[in-house]
Amino acid sequence: MSRFRKSLYLLLLSMACFTLARAALFVIHHDIFTSLSVGETFLAFFFGLHFDLSSVFLVAIGPLCFMNIPFPRLGKRWFSGGAWLWFILLSLQLLILAGDLVYFGHTKRHVANEAFLLGNDIGFLTEIAQTSYLWVVFLVALFAGTLGYLWKKIVRQDLLAWPRTKAWGAWVGILIVGFLAIRGNIGLKPISIVDAFSAGSVSQGQLRLNGFFSMTRSHAKLSNLSHIYYKPEEVKNNLGLPNSEYPFLKQYSDSRKTGHNIILLILESWTPEYLASYEGTDETLTPNFDQMARNGLKFEEFYASGQRSIEGIQAILTGVPPMIGHPELAYGLEMSNLTEVGTVAQKHGYKTLFGRTAQRESFRLLTAAQRVGFKHIFGMEDVPRIRDYPTKNPRWGWDYDTLMYGLEELNTLGPPFLGIFFTATTHKPFPDPGAQFHKKPYSPSGKNGFTNSLYYADWALGEFMKKAKQQPWFSNTIFILTADQVGTRYLTKDSSPGKHLRNNFRIPLVLYGPGIIEPGVNREVSSHVDLMPTLFDLLGFQEPFSSIGESVLRKDSGFAIVKQGSISTIFTKEGALQHSLQNRLNSFAFDDPANVDFNELEKILLSVDQITYELLIKNRWSPPVSH
Predict the structure, then answer these.
(1) Less Cβ crowding at N or C end of the chain, within 10 Å?
(2) Following DSSP, what letter does each residue of 78-134 receive, concatenated?
(3) CB neighbourhood size of 491 (10 A)
(4) What is the percent of the chain with per-residue pLDDT over 70, rounded to a whole number?
(5) What residues pair up with 264 in beta bridges, in sequence order?
(6) Are residues 508 and 482 in contact, defined by beta-carbon separation less than 8 angstroms?
(7) Is the model's pLDDT at 436 over the cut of 90?
(8) CA distance 192 to 207
(9) 532 vs 241, 342, 483, CA distance in Å?
(10) Measured between alpha carbons, how far is 579 from 300 in angstroms, rounded to an integer?
(11) Bridging pattern class, strands 506-512 and 575-579
């Protein structure tokens, strides 16, 4: 068998692996693809080969050229060395595809550049593999072993020599085909994630893609997205913005300094479906949160800005929405001029504290908090263990211990203060908090694990509030409770695709301050980007600030723009529109379609993306801050 034919068989075997991964995605997550017809499914598999070929050649082009150099002295051993190098790389691709298959179940999309960010938390990845997904590692190893057997049968075949001219022609051909396969076309721009959505369907686009392609291409800078859709003056008209150097700069000049303290609690993955004060049916699961919601100002239409913690933290702290192809906080955004809410608070005599349940350096969130002026920070390493838990070393720490430590830190600093605490016990893998909190049989994953962790986390919240009520500063303090994202893995699928999409981003928001905040229910659409302006409003700061958002206390209408990997979505009361920034994808009316102007939603979404991109590129999101 010639080198070229052997290489072709190995290539076909590699492509078969990617097709099998797509078939597994289709079967395991079939509920995502039920809207596709047989013809659309076939086309998704067919056009998916385009993305698979690019992914295969990206790692295979080197070994292929190595294996097929037509020098007479480079025989079977040389070919075998290159072939087994290719196999090792392919095995790594299989591991990524398997991880993506699991990740898809959590987020309903393929993995993107967050995979590279997770590289900073390799311990977390190792623990996940050893606990919740050891079976995935086992299946990948089993499949790789079977693949290795087939690979060996091909590689060990005797090499048949080709005429030198023909052999060199084949080698040059491999180079040309490999280059074109990686690029995906012969045009000016290489194939990109967004090309998968050219049919205008989110589910078809997701089925066309593979996890390796989405991960490697999203790590690039998405240079094929121009982010320019309208003339500059049209963008400002579309959004009703002033024609100024800093169009998102706002000021609440009618505010008066209140002197209130604020404690903002960001509750990991707390989901309305599990909260009785929202849609939950178990009154005993989160009684402490529910009591605060019923005695506070509850927001019914509040949305997370993304599906990852860093996206939510970015929007909360800076007012900058996470957008496709834009830098994120702690990964480039911090180089831009931003409103520093912590710095402003310090100028008014406030002590600023940001604490988290997880380790200090995990995802660099504490560094991000320092960037916007939070002087005092703490993480898991600083928190002493108060209770004796069955799980001795939880990956994400314990909420109760963290909240109690945070309260002590606030007492040490003294009022007035602005404190933000980000909990994490409700993050998978779920530690065992003890039999006292076993609403369900213990599990480090799944709905049972989430339910138990949520029950514990609510108890921790209740204990925190009991102690807070004993402090002299309690009567002058406003508590803000929200989530970083939805626990999408634990949602019950809604029969309406539009409402199910809505449930993937809708999170709780409660303002609680007896004697300060009047209890009630707010049904205006708002999101994470509205929280930083809300802090300015509640504290009565008159300094200018830059944010796409508005104080939730001042909104009488609005929209929420959220990021879902390579898809942007805009929500209003009436409906939602998904967009790839090149093509309009799905659109949903929550009630009467006649009440939704999808052309207007598209115009707003694209205008926000364009002006956000332009302002960050030109460093005109916010005026420079003088320290």
Answers:
(1) C
(2) HHHHHHHHHHHHHHHHHHHHHHHHHHHHHHSS---THHHHHGGGHHHHHHHHHTTTH
(3) 17
(4) 93
(5) 420, 480
(6) yes
(7) yes
(8) 15
(9) 19, 10, 15
(10) 24
(11) unpaired
| DSSP code for 322 | P
Q: Tokens representing 249?
A: 């700069």
pLDDT at 2 over 90: no
Q: SS3 for 198-264, per residue?
A: CCCCHHHHHHHCCHHHHHHHHHCCCCCCCCCCCCHHHHHHHHCCCCCCCCCEECCCCCCCCCCEEEE
Residue 585 three-state SS: strand
Tokens of 592: 């009467």
C-alpha separations of 340 from 317, 570, 616 in Å: 8, 26, 16
d(CA 307, CA 483): 11
Place of tokens 């929209």: 559
Q: Are 390 and 432 a contacting pair, CB within 8 Å?
A: yes
Residue 111's pLDDT is what? 80
Residue 404 φ/ψ, nearest 5 degrees: -65, -40
Cα–Cα dist 482/527, whole Å: 10
Which pair of structure tokens corresponds to residue 356? 């988290």
Question: What DSSP assignment string belongs to 418-477?
Answer: EEEEE--TTSSSPP---GGG-SS---SSHHHHHHHHHHHHHHHHHHHHHHHTTSTTGGGE
Assign residue 563 a region (left: φ > 0; alpha: ψ between -120 and 50; beta: otherwise): beta
Mean pLDDT computed over 275-280: 96
131 pLDDT exceeds 80? no
Q: pLDDT band at 137, cuts 50/70/90?
A: confident
Three-state SS sequence of 62-80? HHHHHHCCCCCCCCHHHHH
State the sign of the Cα–Cα–Cα–Cα dihedral 251, 254, 257, 263: negative
End-to-end CA distance of the chain: 72
> Element (H or E) spanning 584, and its range?
strand 584-589
- Is the model's pLDDT at 194 over the cut of 70? no
pTM given for the model: 0.80
Residue in this structure with the two tokens 């944010």, named with its chain if needed:
547
CA distances in angstroms from 401 to 268, 369, 390, 461, 464, listed in the order given: 15, 21, 15, 11, 10
Using 50, 70 and 90 to split pLDDT, how confident is the model at 108? confident
User: Cα separations (Å) of 583 from 229, 562, 602?
Assistant: 12, 16, 10
Start-end of H helices in 349-417: 365-371, 399-413
The answer to whether 301 and 525 have CB atoms below 8 angstroms apart is yes
User: Is the separation of the CB atoms in 228 and 611 below 8 Å?
Assistant: no
Q: Can you tell me the mean pLDDT for 400-410?
A: 98
Position with higher pLDDT, 226 vs 620? 620
Q: Which of 323, 201, 273, 293 is nearest to 499 (CA)?
A: 273
How far apart (Å, rounded) are the C-alpha atoms in residues 482 and 480?
7
User: What are the structure tokens assigned to 270, written together?
Assistant: 């707390």
pLDDT, residue 219, reads 57
